[in-house]
Amino acid sequence: MKILAIETSCDETSIAIIDTRSFRKNSTIAVLAHNTSSQIKIHQKFGGVVPNLANREHQKNLVPILVKSLKEASLYKEARSKKQELRRKRPQKNLNSRFLILDSILKREQELFARIREHILPLKKPHIDAVAVTIGPGLEPALWVGINFARALATLWDLPLIPINHMEGHIFSALLKAEKTNAKLQKPNYKKIKNYKFQMQKFPAIALLVSGGHTELVCIKGIGKYKIIGETLDDAVGEAFDKTARLLGLRYPGGPEIAKLAEKKNIKNISISLPRPMIRSNNFDFSFSGLKTAVLYAVQDLKKQYTLKDIQPVVAREFQNAAVEVLITKTIAASKKYKTRAILLGGGVSANKKLRVDLTKASKQNNIPLLISPLSLTGDNALMIAIAAFFNQKKAKKNISSLKANAHMRLS
Ligand code: KG4
Ligand code: ZN
Questions:
Q1: Which atom of ligand 1 is closest in space to residue 170's alpha carbon?
Q2: pLDDT tens digits, residue range 101-112?
Q3: Structure pTM?
Q4: Which residue, of 14, 57, 155, 232, has the greatest Cβ tally within 10 A?
Q5: Interval 328-381: pLDDT, tens
């Protein structure tokens, strides 16, 4: 089975094409194409993601990324036969009616529609079995572009459409392990096959999902059986990284900047201590807005004596220590309470080295196997959506008009 997946929930435009033929035999999934275009540079000057700008950028990027991906997967074929050329010039009735349907699906995405008309309409239907798309959670204007693009492709190529929850995608990213490219699988017409081994898990498992919009602990009883057992009551941890970075005069996204600074030397021997919010609360919820406020006061105080450059590494390190300690303490506690057989870590913040290293230590000490998203798949990407779609084939829809963006979609 070949699945084409689309992800546009935030500021990455991403498309993946996977082939699941060898899954039954050896749990591997062949990635025929996976291309992501980041809009970070565009949003950076605004200090965060601007939803309507994201919508416009997705409209610009989706078609070029699809064309590139189809070419990489050897699925790109122009309709060259005379008959088809003629049909293109003098659209027949059924082509005309498809055109009208596309026009109505994409009435709010005229720029995207123009690109589809020029570059996708003249193509032969590729050998793909289903289209998958993220329908939430995320920024509504960003989600809609991906959804309507997916609806247009499903209509044009007469394919089922599989709606996917973005957070389930992050869970699946933790279950993938990159494999060395297998020469035997390098079919001559598949130029860029990369394989991922799917690490089937023993359940229950606990997933810690950490990103710019979410901080959740999810108890997984089996694939598709999720229960959110704890979440942030205010800011997401990625948001706290971003806001702390801004207070320190660093650019967006703040996570990688804070992580880099935290490794620098504290030349002036400055010492600070920040709170570990809710670390001893008897539930699995989080709160990061107080930590951010504590950073604000600490920075204001230290600035009376030191330069911003002097305090940056100290504050970055203590903030990172505080955030990571809270995340790990709660994850281990949840895992003990639910007697889980594995811990999963995914989402943009799971790129954080200290979080990866410390959670590895903590899970070893507690004898709980840990599965961490490969670094290349921590951020938003369509590969995780494609894999989630493979396990959610039952949700495939033929009636695609009912598909809607769900900005606040939950796992349970
Ligand atoms: O999952 P993601 O790419 O997008 C959302 O769905 O939100 O996560 C983005 C978040 C941002 O807040 C960013 O600052 C954070 O992940 N992030 C990091 C690191 N890399 C990205 N946070 C801490 N350390 C990192 N190395
Ligand atoms: Zn995400």
A1: 1
A2: 899 999 999 999
A3: 0.94
A4: 14
A5: 999 999 999 999 999 999 999 999 999 999 999 999 999 999 999 999 999 999
Query: What are phi and psi for residue 272, nearest 5 degrees?
Result: -140, 160
Residue with token string 């650019």: 251
Query: Which residues contact residue 364 at a Cβ distance below 8 angstroms, ignoring those fewer than 6 apart?
Result: 370
Helix (H, G, I), strand (E, B) or coil at 123: strand
Q: Can you tell me the distance from the alpha carbon of 287 to that of 100, in angstroms, rounded to the nearest whole number?
A: 49
Over the stretch 220-249, which tens digit does the pLDDT of each residue have? 999 999 999 999 999 999 999 999 999 999
For 278-302, letters b (16+ CB in 10 Å) and e give beeeeebbbbbeebbebbeebbeeb
Q: Cα dist. 216→68, 213, 253, 410 in Å?
A: 35, 10, 20, 10
CB 279 within 8 A of CB 324: no
With 0-12 / 13-18 / 19 or more C-beta atoms within 10 angstroms meaning exposed / middle / buried, residue 13 is: buried
Long-range contacts of 333-337 (CB under 8 A, 24+ apart): 333/284, 334/206, 334/217, 334/219, 334/229, 334/230, 334/284, 335/206, 335/363, 335/366, 335/368, 336/366
Residue from 36, 341, 391 nearest 198 by CA = 391
Mean pLDDT score, 292-312: 96
Q: What residues are paired with 371 via a beta bridge? A: 344
Ligand 1 neighbours (beta carbon < 6 A)? 10, 211-213, 238, 241-242, 253-256, 259, 347-349, 351-352, 379-380
Number of the ligand closest to the Cα of 139? 1
Residue 159 DSSP label: -
Report d(CA 22, CA 149) in Å as an integer.
29
| Ligand 2 midpoint to CA 99 (Å) | 33
DSSP string, 252-268: SSHHHHHHHHTTS--TT
Structure confidence by residue, pLDDT tens digits, 71-92: 999 999 988 665 555 565 555 5
